[in-house]
Automatic annotation (TrEMBL):
Chain ranges of the ATP-grasp domain: 107-303
Family annotation (InterPro entries): ATP-grasp, ATP_grasp_subdomain_1, PreATP-grasp_dom_sf, PRibGlycinamid_synth_ATP-grasp, PRibGlycinamide_synth, PRibGlycinamide_synth_C-dom, PRibGlycinamide_synth_C_sf, PRibGlycinamide_synth_CS
Name of the protein: Phosphoribosylamine--glycine ligase
Enzyme superclass (EC): ligase
The UniProt record lists the keyword Ligase: yes
A Pfam family reported for this protein in Swiss-Prot or TrEMBL: GARS_A
Biological process annotations from GO: 'de novo' IMP biosynthetic process; purine nucleobase biosynthetic process
Reactions this protein catalyses: 5-phospho-beta-D-ribosylamine + glycine + ATP = N(1)-(5-phospho-beta-D-ribosyl)glycinamide + ADP + phosphate + H(+)
Length: 417
């Protein structure tokens, strides 16, 4: 099978790594990719937001499957263009991707499908904003309606700050605060059949102890030893299957990866958000544990034959990933700094620990930072404590001027807290 992956972050590196280990994959391409992905896939330049260009590239390469990684191309209709060219694609249509592209649309789907989520108001005027803020009280949760790379959400006790964020957006969703640990649960679907993956937890805040601003995600781990073993079944029944069914009934079937961001509250599971693609950095730990070769699963989803997919097999190992971000992330990340220590990790810590590249590019013989999140250092071990130890040992070998990472990824879970 020839596979083309669209995107260039650590999620796409994780996808390409798994696909490169799949015996059914005999050619692997990534566009545009990054310096790390270049080691497992052939890179091609492309404007990932240009559906016609992506479809042309896939045709040229004779791709049997296109996997779209990030949300922006999905919302821009890249899957539709590839599908129209007659090539199977893993990733929803632009219309179905509105589940991520518009928080108001997601709320509407959830209401229709009776999926538990925070009560909310969609606001477009200062008066509506004030009414909504007062209806829920502190802590205030204000979300930009459109795509914002995980940074459009403000959760604050400060009413003035909440109001200011709301007034800076064209349209906002203001909602009830959900208290409780967060879980990311991914499901692969062809629009009818839904297959859940293993749950993971992401660390959204920039600093240790969940302090600092929201980011795209600073680390993740899987499995979740503290979670109810029935959690996946419960979310399948109350969230994933009803959402997939609702979108199909609307005539906009969702095929690809449905990401449920959940809060485990005292009153039960609630959806915080949906995404229409693999999560980053959760994918790094989920795929580290998946034993079933990936390409066939994604192709079954793309072809509408997921009902023929044998049950997925999982490793009993635990996985931890730690994101190394550039100086000043998430505000105004500095790029172009040389990264050292990559070869040492490969030589000393592999194969259980490895570096997935997020924002990197090659400059002559050097690899330099090229984004806010730069690397996603991933490790597996017999339990979370061991996976954590291996991941941080590898992190310590990496030298990137001004970089930052959290030191507490999976710490509580590893200690059984
Ligand atoms: P989102 O982009 O919707 O995932 O929001 C980013 C982060 O903001 C989430 O991962 C949560 O940590 C937080 N958040 C979003 N909605 C809520 C809510 N209703 N209550 C509490 N925290 C929230
Ligand atoms: N890790 C959060 C996300 O992928 O949206």
């Amino acid at each position: 099978m020839k596979v083309l992956v669209i995107g260039g972050g650590a999620r796409e590196h994780a996808l390409c790594r798994s696909l490169s280990l799949d015996p059914d994959v005999n050619a692997l391409y990534c566009a545009p990719g990054n310096a790390g992905i270049a080691e497992v896939a052939e890179l091609r330049p492309v404007d990932a937001l240009d559906g016609a260009a992506v479809a042309r590239l896939a045709t040229e390469l004779g791709a049997d499957l296109v996997v779209v990684g990030p949300e922006a191309p999905l919302v821009a209709g890249v899957s539709d263009a590839v599908r129209a060219a007659g090539i199977p694609v893993f990733g929803p249509s632009a219309q179905a991707a509105q589940l991520e592209g518009s928080k108001a649309f997601a709320k509407d789907v959830m209401a229709a499908a009776d999926v538990p989520t925070a009560r909310s108001y969609v606001c477009t005027t200062p008066e509506e904003v004030d009414t909504a803020l007062d209806a829920f009280g502190a802590p205030y949760v204000v979300k930009d309606d459109g795509l914002a790379a995980g940074k459009g959400v403000v959760v604050t006790e400060d009413r003035a700050a909440a109001r200011a964020h709301a007034l800076g957006c064209d349209r906002v969703v203001i909602e009830e605060y959900l208290d409780g640990p967060e879980v990311s649960l991914f499901a692969i679907t062809d629009g009818v059949t839904v297959i859940p993956l293993q749950p993971a937890q992401d660390f959204k805040r920039a600093l240790d102890g969940d302090e600092g601003p929201n980011t795209g995600g600073m680390g993740a781990y899987s499995p979740l030893p503290w979670a109810d073993p029935k959690l996946v079944d419960e979310v399948m029944e109350s969230v994933l299957q009803p959402t997939v069914d609702e979108l199909r009934h609307r005539g906009t079937p969702f095929s690809g990866l449905l990401y449920a961001g959940l809060a485990i509250t005292s009153r039960g599971v609630r959806v915080i958000e949906f995404n229409a693609r693999f999560g980053d950095p959760e994918t790094q730990v989920v795929l580290a544990r998946l034993r079933t070769p990936l390409a066939g699963v994604l192709l079954n989803a793309a072809n509408g034959t997921l009902d023929t997919q044998p049950p997925l097999r999982w490793s009993a190992d635990a996985a931890v990933t730690v994101v190394i971000a550039s100086h000043n992330y998430p505000e105004t990340p500095r790029t172009g700094d040389p990264i050292e220590g990559l070869a040492e990790v490969a030589a000393e810590d592999g194969p259980d620990a490895y570096v997935l590249h997020a924002g990197t590019r090659r400059e002559g013989a050097a690899v330099v930072s090229a984004g806010g999140r730069v690397l996603s250092v991933t490790a597996t071990g017999s339990d979370l404590a061991q996976a954590r130890e291996k991941a941080y040992k590898a992190v310590a070998r990496i030298r990137l001027d001004g970089s930052q990472h959290r030191t507490d990824i999976a710490a509580k879970a590893a200690e059984g807290r």
